[in-house]
Amino acid sequence: MTVSGIARALTQAPSVQAAAEAARIDTDFSMLPGLDAPVLAALLDARRGTDAPRSVLVITPTGRRAESIGAALQSLVPDAVVRHFPAWETLPHERLSPSAETVGRRLSVLRDAAAWSETDSGPLIVTASVRAALQPIAAGLTDAGVLELSAGARGHDLEAVVRRLVELAYVRVDMVSRRGEFAVRGGILDVFPPNADHPYRVEFFGDEVEQIRAFSVADQRSLPGDVAGVTLLPGRELLLTPDVRARAAALHDRFPGLRAMLEKMSEGIPVEGMESLLTSVADAVLPLVDYLPRGSAAALIDPERAVARAMTLSETNREFLEAAWSAATAGADSPVDLEAGDFLTLPDLRRAAAERRGAWWAFSGFDSGEADAADEGLGDSDVVRVPARPVPSFQGNVDGATAHVGELVADGWAVVVAASGPGLVDRARDVLAERGIAARAVDDLADAPDSGVATAVLGALESGFELPDAKLAVLTESEFYGRTIGADGQVVKKLASRRRNVVDPLQLKPGDVVVHSTHGIGKFVELVQREVSSGGRNAVKTTREYLVLEYAPSKRGHPGDKLFVPTDQLDLLSRYVGGDAPALSKMGGSDWAAAKGKARKAVRDIAVELVKLYSARMAAKGHAFGPDTPWQRELEEAFPFAETPDQLQTIDEIKADMERPIPMDRLLSGDVGFGKTEVAVRAAFKAIQDGKQVAMLVPTTLLVKQHLETFTERFAGFPVKVRPLSRFQTDKEARDTLAGLTDGTVDMVIGTHRILTEKVIFKDLGLMIIDEEQRFGVEHKDALKKLKTGVDILAMSATPIPRTLEMAVTGIREMSTLQTPPEDRHPILSYVGARSDKQIAAAIRRELLREGQVFYVHNRVQSIQRVAAQLAELVPEARIAVAHGQMGEHALEEVVDGFWERRFDVLVSTTIIETGLDISNANTIIIDRADKYGLSQLHQLRGRVGRGRERAYAYFLYDELKPLSETAADRLETIAVNNDLGSGMQVALKDLEIRGAGNLLGAEQAGHIAGVGFDLYLRMIGEAVSTFRGDEVEGPAELRLELPVEARIPESYIDSERLRLEAYQKLSAAAGSVSGAGSGAGAGSGAGSGGGAGADASGASTDAIDLVREELEDRYGQAPAEVDGLFRVARLRRRAAQAQLTDVVAMGPNLRVAPAPAADSMRVRLQRLYPKSKVLAGGEAMIVPLPSAGGEPLADADLIAWVAQLLDQLYPLPTAAEA
Prior knowledge:
The chain is α/β, with parallel strands linked by helices. About 35% of the residues lie in helices and about 20% in strands. Strands 3-4-2-15-16-1-17 form a 7-stranded parallel sheet, with helices on both faces. Strands 30-31-29-32-33-28-34 form a 7-stranded parallel sheet, with helices on both faces. The protein has a 6-stranded mixed sheet with strand order 7-8-9-10-11-12, sandwiched between helices. Strand 21 and strand 22 form a beta hairpin.
């Protein structure tokens, strides 16, 4: 990605040489925006060998521009240290702390700047937005000290390390999930530094650091490879040193409203939002330039915009103080006004730079004509002008662009085409060469480009220019292809770490409703430890943990019955999801059996239908697509982000499905913004490469337009014809598209349900993609079924409806999930409150400050214009547009297009924006009368923001004069709590809980789901489907396994109840996976008969138990003896489940096993091996005396081995041959 040759070629132009001479003095420059970065590179080069350091602070109007100019400078000056200094995502007075990640990035930039020396490394370039550059910073941040830990180092007392972490403002938790947190378990320290991609697990042995490993937040498992050492930066920009604590104590009486916050600070406890007091309690505050090397230059890019931004910054800061937001987020009450800590002004910053003997350069895109006048002798001018002309716009017409490049090359110019992906570079060279233009692709461009040739190179430049002085033209992909990869596209994302099984403990709170598959619906009370005795003369006492569940009382007026569930039977429990608070079952009563029976009967009818559908699909002949073509690889390489592992796996699964002759039917579920569209792009391209047509069905006309842009942009440069079909097209356009589909000239059509009408006739349809599947009703799906015999189908959805989920879970269709969120996303800050004008004005202005956009949702068409007029009065500078479904098509399209292209700041609209509209620049949504919406609607609306890397805000407003209903309050509470990324599924399930559920083949199922809970209902469907397929299914028998052995997780090993519960649950699932082999998970695989399935599953679940052990030891250290016992019991439990036993219980000196072996040969073997044993009448159980060692009970491990041996002898597993 080196294009330093461009800067070298520029210095040959007299105008750039004149500019370089001004490298050490304050200068105003006038040039095209595309020249800013190359001229900056030339200025830095001109400082080489002088006493001025080659370091510069580049100030841009917005953070986005700072990042793009930083990437361009890195390409132009490959040996430079380029760092981006981000702004806080909160305003200085807000009672919200900036995220730990932002703080970490800021502190690491300041540390790098302090440690930089020109002799050791190349030039230092720090980019910052006006907002970041003008905010004063606490003094002494680089001296605050860090904590260095390296493997093998001694002298680290763990308690001292923990104290130091608390001083550095880290928060202690039981499980690390966010930056700035740490957890301690025994000799293991988990810590997530603010500037790290992954948290670290540090193992101590005494005072020695034994090992350091990175681990993944999602599944808490270590990542491969050891880490040599870690540097732990402070977690906040305000550290509670003794001086700061004393000042906080002194402020107590002056600010009664802040007393609680100040009290905590004076005691050394970090509080949310304490940074708002920075100016009053910190030692001093400094401008950013004071942290850079003395003599560093400051370059102000686009000064006209920057000045305007600086002025609105301080105004908004003041306004925000007056608005006094009351937020739903903890502690965010009212902003703090201390008459200080306001932003600096640009002249202040310029003075600060001059005091440190730094030059001040301003790069304006405007030309005042002053320089020309001076040339003609009409006065003096200080402006240095670099005359260049912009590259003409070809509107995506590649022929126009290549013809223009051809003319320049023929004229002896040097032409450079810079693109951001290797695929695009090769494509540009091929396109030019095909038209007979001398072109070549190079990896790096270190020397000035040759004239008379077009050079295609990998580079991240901002925009192109043509400089007649040097006969040099530079085109970027946006000029050449007429496209650019979204605003954030230039940054290649880090690969997100793969989630295995995500750590989500049952997370039961007292009072939660759970379903026990034998006893029915109960309420969770607590987790308790009880001492259990084996009974008899030499009773053995052991301690075990139980979950206590409460059921309906068996006698009226009595307290509820209690059930103690051993922690190894957690696989029989699931959270209840179904309807509103259900009635608790009676233990042993008939009501639960009746509910299960009814549901089973209903499920059987469904299963018949499902199996018919499945068999029809399996019997149908589809098209087997060929393997990937070279063009496919080229297209995939041009993707500007790093794919997440989930995406790669899903893409492989889909391609494999397409290459099979059976038609594909796959559901792709992934939360809003997790990268589903890119998967569809690749699948569509694969189908088109094989000469087939692709249809994409989307729910709204706005989405048609958006997907059309994405697909056209990704297919740019390939001979693929993509056409839209929705009510936004004129009749003539629609007729042309339909004719193209029939004669095969149109390769892909993206449209609304209009695609499903009879008029649309495809020549050869190969793939159908359905986006936002949850929006299509049954009648659309029927139309699809007619269309799709033999066609591959890929359905995508963020919040799958129960019907869709059910089909996927029962294995009637394949399912892929994208669970890895793109990196660098923040959860959305959600506020719930009564509506007030001041708050709305402040919220809109805060977003305009970031050059962002705002959605304002008002769902009444009659009054929407009035609301827009009110907003225009409140915030006169905002450009406001209105969109609703009753507008004419073209009017609506123009408004949304304008918003998409950033011509408007605020879009006042109805819920028409709810689905799939993807505008990464809109990061605030204000929902008026939020109490009137459903839960999934609120989630989908909130999902419209937070798609960029800035922190997003969602404001849910209600009318304070009208009372909130119970369910509305419930919904608003849920939405405020579930604000993490990927919470779509939680919201979908919660919605299911509040509304009840629909079903695959009609509405009558909702009652049954409410009766038995969603999980159990799905399990039943799985069993029923398997039965109809001819697979034997044994429902898991409830197994009582009670032996006098120590088998539990002691609190000294895992002290958090939540995490102990999670460990028990994982182990229980691993041990019980054999009993579930026929149901649920295995239902779709069509395994042979029951025996074979059991044998396979046992092999798999051995691994499952080992994996759980490996995970526990990775997270909590070496397992103690009680945990060893727990794993042995888990293996024994799995073995007993394979033998389909219901009881293996120690009763006094005997072991009771039920049922007894049925075969006579086994009974004979029992008498021979265990002479004192006896079989109870009817053969329902047998009693075997327990062995002893010299009159003493056996050791735990020996007893478990003896029972396992007994089971092997009397209940042998069928061999593969028998099965």
